[in-house]
Specification:
Elements (H helix, E strand, L loop, with lengths): L1 H32 L6 H13 L4 H18 L12 H13 L9 H26 L4 H20 L8 H13 L5 H22 L37 E6 L6 E6 L1 E2 L4 E2 L12 E10 L12 E7 L3 E4 L3 E4 L8 E9 L3 H4 L8 H4 L32 H13 L5 H13 L5 E2 L10 H9 L1 E2 L1 H14 L4 E7 L3 E2 L4 E5 L3 E9 L3 E5 L25 H28 L5 H12 L10 H8 L4 H15 L10 H13 L1 H12 L6
Parallel strand pairs: 10-11
Antiparallel strand pairs: 1-5, 1-14, 2-12, 3-4, 5-9, 6-9, 7-8, 12-15, 13-14, 15-16
Helix pairs in contact: 1-2, 1-5, 1-6, 1-7, 2-3, 2-5, 3-5, 4-5, 5-6, 7-8, 11-13, 12-14, 13-14, 15-20, 16-18, 16-19, 16-20, 17-18, 18-19, 19-20
């Protein structure tokens, strides 16, 4: 009887500790989520009775399951959000609510309701399961139950939802002491109260007034509400939490464009005084519907060149191929955009040469400041005979780089591919929004000094390199595709604010490309950039595909090694030359030199083409020739840098195939 009494007493201690933790979590969230948190009270009572053994565990388990839809209804949201057809939208809205918690006071009422629903859902489920685990013997179950019960209070601490940092530790400390009371409830309560009082007094005197950890160091920045289309290349001036800005309904995904920037003033891209009215024969009419969720821009978004905007109050044409609403939109405002959208395949674009002629020269003029410089077309030709005023400057480096990426290339798409590969591959550049204040030439600084930036830097640098190479290019500003939350609906968030480039192809029109690394938070739908086209995969499928590519590459290297053993042994310098001859897209003439092979290999990429010069020096240098230890591996790495793993594998298979001597 004594043991049974002690056991019952210990379990009531557990119930008291559970109530204390739940009460602490409720109090921590009260200031921001209000009286809606009282819905947790009955959940905490049931969990406490379960922990004390006065209520069966099945009741708590059933309550935890019923709480999944109950939390949404308790937050005051309509029952229609629980319909199976609304599952994707409901999930996305709950995620938006969680993301908005650090700045919940600035959020719109609908976002606050979803934030309350998300907290009720997480806290109620964790409390119910924590009570079930605490009702069962075992240290591991007890520890897991305690961890679940701390979730509401711990989440508030992590997100700094509590204005005072002193009482949080006291609540947790008293709960732990109650948990280990083991039947000695009264002395433990007295001791816990004394310890809590001392901890509270000490925290008030010595502790900082901030939370335990500064999880949100951008609290001083205003919340993102409006996209500034001007390019600054400096630190972001707002705080982005993943809140939904727009809901776009369209037949297919797109990059939602606000404005295009066609002028460059030696420092940044900006709206041109006169836009280039170039024909777009491949453009087709499309219509989208946009519902404003949190964005305050008057500028409308469009999947291409906007033709008309239908909305209450009307819209006006604005510079930069855009339209603007006559009044700032409120949440829930809806408008419909009719646009001309260009769709083209890589195969079609690959047949289009680099455009020439005066009508395109206006798109390549870049002022160089004083003293004036005679500018050839394209500008990259300056690299051949660089004027003294540009030698040793970043502009001189820019012309040489653009010339190296474009020389000998006949296809306009190939030039774009070389520039995109230069920015995205080989780890040359790093995506980050933690940048310093820009200097007088921010894009040159990005290309040749810092090698770090965000979408403005990558898009601006790509457009600059292509313009210098004679390719008509401009910068587009707006939003990335966003997350698909329905059959034909995309939720566009503040983190999807984006910049990309558009390249003009004669006979087609303006085609978008995304030269920003995948590390960017902007959610760009696969396939919108024809150079990166491919269906989306899950992480597991993508990992399997990479493993298959790696295995196939190893097989190719084995084939090359076998050919080396079967054929008469030749030196590595000769092997490198033979591989490059086999890789050439066009058959080489019998007397073609390795240097003569260089322009042909530029159609694959600059890294592969440079191997021809390496092979020439290795083969004919009189003194200190460069080492060529593993020719096949050198070629493989260059191909991966230029065209990616899959196309590199195809090129290696071509090189491994038996030569045709007919």
């Amino acid at each position: 009887m004594v043991q049974a009494s002690a056991f019952r007493e210990r379990r009531w201690d557990d119930a008291a500790a559970l109530i204390l933790l739940c009460g602490g979590g409720l109090a921590a969230w009260w200031g921001d989520l209000g009286s809606g948190m009282l819905w947790l009270a009955p959940i905490a009572v049931v969990a406490a009775l379960t922990a004390a053994g006065a209520l069966g565990r099945r009741v708590a388990a059933v309550l935890a399951i019923a709480w999944l839809p109950g939390a949404i209804l308790a937050a005051g949201l309509p029952a229609g959000t629980l319909a199976p057809a609304a599952l994707d939208t409901t999930t996305a809205s709950l995620r938006d609510g969680l993301r908005a918690l650090p700045t919940i006071n600035d959020a719109t009422p609908i976002v606050q309701s979803w934030a309350l629903a998300a907290v009720l859902l997480v806290a109620g489920t964790a409390t119910s399961l924590g009570g079930v685990l605490w009702s069962r013997p075992g240290r591991i179950r007890g520890f897991l139950g305690f961890a679940l019960l701390v979730v509401p209070l711990g989440g508030a601490i992590a997100l700094q939802q509590t204005s005072d940092s002193s009482w949080q530790g006291a609540v947790v400390l008293v709960a732990v002491m109650l948990r280990i009371a083991r039947g000695r409830l009264i002395p433990i309560v007295v001791a816990a109260s004394m310890v809590g009082a001392v901890a509270l007094f000490g925290a008030q005197v010595a502790a900082p007034r901030a939370g335990w950890q500064p999880f949100d160091h951008h609290q001083s920045l205003p919340r993102f509400q409006e996209l500034i289309t001007g390019q600054t290349y400096g630190p972001l001036g707002d705080r982005r939490t993943g809140a939904v800005m727009l809901d776009v309904t369209a037949r297919q995904p797109a990059l939602w464009r606000m404005q295009v920037l066609e002028a460059f003033d030696n420092r940044r891209w900006l709206i041109a005084r006169e836009t280039s009215r170039l024909p777009e024969p491949a453009a087709r009419p499309e219509s989208i519907k946009v519902q404003v969720r949190g964005l305050q821009n008057k500028s409308v978004v469009s999947p291409g060149r906007p033709l008309a905007v239908h909305t209450e109050g009307g819209a006006l044409v604005e510079p930069g191929y855009g339209f603007a609403l006559t009044e700032s939109p409120d949440e829930g405002h809806t408008y419909r955009v009719e646009a001309a959208v260009v769709h083209a395949t890589a195969a079609r674009l690959a047949r289009i040469p680099v455009p020439t002629g005066r009508r395109y020269q206006a798109l390549t003029q870049i002022g160089l400041g004083a003293p004036p410089v005679e500018i050839p077309y394209p500008l990259a030709r300056l690299a051949k005979h660089l004027p003294p005023v540009l030698q040793g400057t970043d502009w001189g480096h820019l012309f040489r780089l653009s010339w190296r990426l474009s020389k000998g290339v006949k296809s306009e798409l190939a030039v774009v591919r070389h520039v995109e590969n230069f920015l995205l591959r080989a780890g040359r550049f790093r995506y980050t929004t933690e940048v310093g204040n820009p200097g007088p030439e921010p894009l040159n600084e990005f290309l040749f000094h810092t090698h770090a930036g965000y979408c403005q830097h990558f898009a601006g640098a790509a457009a600059l390199l292509l313009r210098v190479a004679g390719v008509p290019t401009r910068v587009a500003v707006g939003f990335a595709t966003g997350e698909q939350v329905g059959h034909d609906t995309w939720a566009v968030r503040d983190e999807d604010a984006h910049a990309w480039i558009e390249v003009y192809f004669p006979g087609v029109g303006w085609v978008p490309f995304n030269p920003t690394p995948a590390a960017a938070p902007a959610d760009v739908s696969p396939g919108l950039d024809v150079l990166q086209a491919g269906p989306a995969r899950s992480a597991g499928a993508g990992g399997t595909a990479l493993q298959l590519v790696g295995a196939a590459a190893a097989l190719v290297l084995l084939i090359l090694a076998a050919r080396r053993l079967i054929r008469p042994r030749r030196g590595p310098r000769t092997q490198l030359a033979d591989l490059l001859v086999r890789l050439a897209p066009q058959p080489s003439r019998p007397r073609t030199t390795l240097r003569g092979l260089h322009p042909t290999l530029t159609e694959i990429g600059p890294a592969t083409a440079d191997l021809a010069l390496v092979a020439e020096r290795a083969r004919f240098a009189a003194a200190n020739p460069p080492e060529v230890p593993h020719p096949a591996l050198m070629v493989w790495r260059a191909l991966v840098s230029d065209v990616g793993r899959r196309r590199a594998l195809a090129f290696m298979l071509r090189a491994a195939a038996p030569a045709n001597h007919s």
